[in-house]
Design goal:
The complex is a heterodimer.
Chain A (H helix, E strand, L loop, with lengths): L1 H17 L4 E2 L2 E2 L3 H5 L5 H7 L6 E5 L4 E5 L5 E4 L3 H28 L3 H4 L4 H10 L1 H12 L3 H20 L7 H6 L8 H16 L4 H11 L3 H4 L49 E7 L10 E9 L6 E7 L4 E7 L7 E3 L3 E7 L5 E7 L7 E4 L2 E4 L1 E7 L7 E7 L15 E7 L11 H7 L4 H8 L7 E7 L4 E6 L14 E2 L18 E3 L5 E4 L21 H12 L5 H8 L5 H11 L11 H5 L10 H16 L1 H4 L12 H10 L17 H18 L6 H5 L1 E3 L10 E4 L15 E3 L2 E7 L2 E7 L17 H6 L3 E2 L6 H5 L4 E7 L1
Parallel strand pairs in A: 3-29, 5-8, 12-20
Antiparallel strand pairs in A: 1-2, 4-5, 4-29, 6-7, 6-22, 7-25, 7-26, 8-9, 9-10, 10-11, 11-18, 12-17, 13-14, 15-16, 18-19, 19-21, 23-24, 26-27, 27-28
Helix pairs in contact in A: 4-8, 4-10, 7-10, 13-14, 17-21, 19-22
Chain B lengths: L1 H15 L7 H16 L3 H25 L5 H8 L5 H31 L1
Helix pairs in contact in B: 1-2, 1-3, 2-5, 3-5
The chains are: A alpha+beta, B mainly alpha.
């Protein structure tokens, strides 16, 4: 009996141990019973990977075929657009189900229910920004466009068809590791994906930092933070004339914005993301064919954000990259046109200082009266813990996102374009672009794109080129929204939006090319005020310089240009630095004097320059960097710091705060150089830029084993090949429209499969790192494809 | 002897039975309890047989799954579990299978002994 009891107890303990989530060094492990069992644990993922791709499926409503080529790019053939979108949803789910599920749950603020309370602040932030509320509102608008909504539903049906057909053993490995299951997909989730991309691309602004910089620098502010730099080369050529004016805006409430230093803490903004696109017409190409290139720079992850595909129906034949989560091709080409996007960078997230009536924070002042807040209760599920309730206060401006415990009298309310009501079904933009035949179709398609503002580059087979900065552009007073605004005055609201036909654009410019690289959209002559979300000058100047100087462009030259590693920042800074240190033969700085300014992965000179420039900048602005209370104060950029040095090398800002003597700019250059040499003496193993940068492509959920680390890559931020440590060209595409077809190339750092064990998970990274492109197999004939494919999926009607 | 062979076959079947809804560990455990209850008198022998049969069944199963398509996944999962090698993962899997079956079988034969008394 005792033996039986002991055995029963041991068995119970064993079974319990097998079915709980153990924790090792803070990492929660999956249930051992399910995870290790060969029947449905991770071993099934090892087996099923890449081995079950030939399928014949049945569905009562949809039909079509998918042929997968040797890089697992699906070529989707269907008779109707709904069928094509169904199959797109299916193949997205097949390869990227966990990625699309996880990213939309993240946008919704639901990660705590998957990984526990460590994600609580992340979830609160998403919910306070109102992302899910905005997505719900968008879907209600989409329903007013039944044809468009039907396409979103077809896409969702495809995903759900895959989910319903899968068993637990087929779940992607991340589900098994994290212990959750996929949810039914709906158009709401596609809307969430759109909102999350908007957060990445137009959720960046520096209002608090600029407000504090204005208070800190006083009269010097305008000189150190100019709205337009003298060397800038805007997206829309400088000579462009505008066909509208906003004279009626002059004199409206322009002075009520100076509200002093704000001790407001919040999440720091992400800087450096950006993209390039450009196109040349036939007059600048060796073969007389127009060429278009695009490389969007995003945070690099595995699985990669992009998924490559072709869709062929009687109505359109489009190839390009898609987002797993929304229907249609986002960047790509068809027989008639090609298009690419970069971020417009407009600041469409403004902050308003709210004055509370009392510590309850339920009433705030507006136009001399106390107005009630709308309280929205967010119930956040937390894995292994009780639910957490977060009360979000909504004002007339928008939600209170960050609260400062030490402040009971004021907070900041966020007014963000994403919380503005939709006017169209945004998904129509890509549906229409995918089938566009000419410039007019392109313009009609993109006018429905509300945010994030994008530079839509265009090229047609007829040789037309164009670029439109498309997005809903708020009408603002001069410098409205550059700083935190007074939220007690309703006159500080945006004054509507510019009609889309007045958005900046250029069509067949005389210079023979169009381009954008996240610089300012226009010069000062544009009638509406828009400010800096995150404008960058260096790449734009370089792109335009190269495009201007060459009139015999070829596909190969374009490919090389996407991998151009020349640093304009080095060209600008080094002459000023060299005047202060010894650069004669044999001196340590001689290497930099001889350097060709290219950030090549195997070169060591960029390491010296990057460190030198960084130390210099931090020493010049020690007033801010060394003062912890100045964490949220904007710092002048490299360009403006060098301008200051050239204008007055004895300026007070070059004097170090903590030294008794007075330093000049040259003293700072020398100190920065000494620090560089000291650093490199302490790190004798650094022999190349690639090694120093130590680039990485982490897994989306930061599971180290599923990421790629220690990549030796050329390029850096603010260089055309903007491959920085963890962000960079997420897709490189070159398209040439020839008289008899399309000649296109592309690559992204990852692989088509989102399954970590698959050979197609990361197989393109090495070629991407080396600057190689793959020929894109653009089908025009199903018979040709049927002779050349690796796998096929056939969907028949029941 | 024949009962032992039959018993071993039962354990192999329970080890390899495809499962989707129920935890394979429960199936293997309770399958071993039942098989042992009807077929095994000696709980020590039951433990020894099921430990080795369960261990080998799961070891061979995961060797088959992992070896078929040159998967890199087991190496990655090893890294997730603090630098465990792919082979160690297979042994760990096999141990879970063997121990689950062995505990179930011991319990089953002990119940049988108790009920016979």
């Amino acid at each position: 009996m005792i033996r039986l009891i002991v055995l029963a107890a041991l068995s119970a303990a064993w079974l319990y141990l097998m079915h709980i989530n153990l924790e090792i060094k803070g990492t929660q492990l999956p249930q051992l019973a399910g995870f290790f069992s060969p029947q449905k644990g991770f071993w099934q993922n090892a087996y099923s990977m890449d081995s079950k791709m030939n399928m014949e499926l049945k569905h009562p409503k949809y039909k079509g075929e998918i042929y997968l080529d040797d890089r697992m790019v699906p070529h989707i053939y269907a008779e109707k657009t709904e069928d094509a979108y169904f199959l797109q949803g299916y193949i997205h789910a097949y390869f990227r189900l966990w990625q699309m599920d996880f990213s939309t749950r993240a946008a919704e603020g639901r990660i705590s229910e998957l990984i526990g309370e460590k994600a609580l602040e992340f979830d609160k932030n998403k919910r306070r920004k109102g992302i899910s509320r905005s997505a719900r509102n968008s879907v209600e608008v989409w329903k007013k466009y039944p044809q468009s909504y039907a396409l979103c539903e077809a896409y969702a049906d495809g995903i759900n068809y895959f989910i319903e057909g899968m068993s637990e053993k087929d779940l992607p490995i991340e589900y098994k590791l994290m212990g959750f299951k996929p949810e039914k997909w709906t158009p709401y989730k596609s809307a969430l994906f759109h909102k999350s991309m908007a957060e990445v691309l137009c959720g960046r602004e520096w209002d608090v930092e600029m407000t504090n910089a204005k208070a800190f620098f006083g009269e010097e502010f305008n000189r150190l933070f100019p709205e337009f730099s003298k060397d800038q080369s805007p997206v829309i050529p400088k000579e462009t004339k505008w066909s509208f004016s906003l004279d009626s805006m002059k004199g409206i409430n322009g002075d009520a914005m100076d509200i002093g230093f704000l001790e407001q803490h919040r999440e720091p903004g992400i800087s450096g993301l950006g993209s390039n696109n450009w196109a040349v017409n036939g007059s600048k190409a060796a073969a007389g064919n127009p060429l278009l290139c695009n490389d969007p720079h995003l945070t690099l992850t595995l699985p990669n954000i992009w998924f490559e595909q072709q869709m062929i129906t009687p109505a359109f034949n489009v190839y390009g990259v898609t987002f797993a989560g929304i229907p249609g091709v986002v960047i790509g080409f068809n027989q008639n046109i090609a298009w690419g996007v970069t971020n417009g960078g407009w600041d469409v997230m403004d902050w308003y200082k709210i004055e509370w009536k009392d510590e309850k924070k339920q009433q705030y002042k507006l136009d001399g009266e106390w107005k009630n807040t709308e309280l929205v209760i967010e119930n956040i599920k937390v894995k292994g813990k009780e639910d957490v309730i977060d009360t979000v206060r909504w004002t007339v401006w928008g939600p209170i996102v960050f609260t400062q415990p030490s402040q009971s009298k004021f907070d900041l309310a966020m007014h963000w374009i994403v919380n503005e009501p939709s006017q169209y079904c945004e998904m129509d933009v890509f549906t229409d672009l995918n089938k566009a035949k000419n410039f007019s179709d392109y313009r009609n398609a993109i006018k429905k794109f509300p945010y994030p503002a994008q530079n839509f580059a265009f090229m047609s087979k007829d040789g037309e080129i164009a670029l439109t900065v498309q997005g809903n552009m708020p009408i603002k007073n001069f410098q409205q929204g550059r700083f935190v605004l007074d939220g007690s005055d309703s006159k500080n609201a945006w004054h509507g939006f510019i009609p889309s036909e007045f958005n900046p654009y250029t069509h067949n410019p005389s210079r023979g090319f169009i381009s954008s690289a996240n610089q300012k959209s226009t010069d000062e002559s544009y009638p509406n005020y828009y400010n800096d979300g995150d404008f960058r000058d260096f790449r734009g100047i370089m792109v335009n310089r190269l495009l201007e100087n060459e009139n015999q462009w070829t596909v190969d030259k374009m490919k090389k240009m996407q991998f151009n590693n020349y640093s304009l920042k080095a060209e600008l800074e080094l002459p000023s630095f060299f005047g202060c240190v010894d650069t004669t033969v044999g001196s340590p700085a001689y290497m930099l004097a001889k350097w060709d300014r290219n950030y090549d992965s195997n070169s060591v000179a960029p390491v010296y320059f990057d460190l030198w420039s960084d130390y210099f900048h931090k020493l010049v602005w020690d007033e801010i960097y060394q003062d912890t209370t100045k964490k949220f104060v904007a710092v002048p950029n490299d360009q403006n710091t060098i301008e200051l040095m050239k204008a007055n090398s004895n300026h007070i800002y070059f004097d170090l705060v903590n030294s008794p003597q007075k330093e000049s700019a040259c003293d700072i250059v020398k100190l920065a150089w000494d620090s560089t040499l000291q650093y490199l003496t302490k790190h004798p193993g650094l022999h190349s830029w690639g090694e120093f940068k130590d680039a990485a492509i982490p897994h989306m959920a930061r599971i180290p084993a599923f990421g790629k680390y220690h990549l030796s890559c050329s390029g850096n931020a603010d260089i055309i090949n903007a491959a920085a440590k963890t962000f960079g060209p997420s897709w490189r595409m070159v398209v040439e429209h020839q008289k008899d077809g399309v000649n296109a190339y592309g690559i992204y750092p990852g692989g088509q499969s989102g399954h970590p064990g698959s050979q197609y998970y990361d197989q393109m990274i090495e070629d991407w790192r080396l600057g190689n492109h793959y020929a894109l197999e653009y089908d025009t004939d199903v018979a040709m494809r049927q002779k050349k494919y690796v796998y096929s999926i056939k969907l028949n009607s029941k | 002897m024949s009962k032992s062979i039959l018993f071993s076959i039962c354990i192999v079947l329970f080890s390899l039975m495809p499962q989707d809804q129920i935890s394979p560990v429960y199936v293997l455990f309770f399958g071993s309890v039942i098989a042992s209850f009807f077929l095994m008198k000696n709980s020590l022998a039951a433990f020894a047989i099921t430990m080795s049969v369960g261990f080998m069944s799961w070891l061979l199963f995961c060797l088959y799954l992992d070896g078929g398509v040159q998967s890199r996944l087991s190496v990655m999962i090893g890294e997730v579990f603090q630098s465990v090698s792919a082979m160690q993962l297979k042994y760990l899997t096999a141990f879970i299978g063997g121990m689950t079956a062995a505990l179930g079988a011991s319990l089953g034969s002990s119940i049988r002994v108790l009920m016979r008394k």
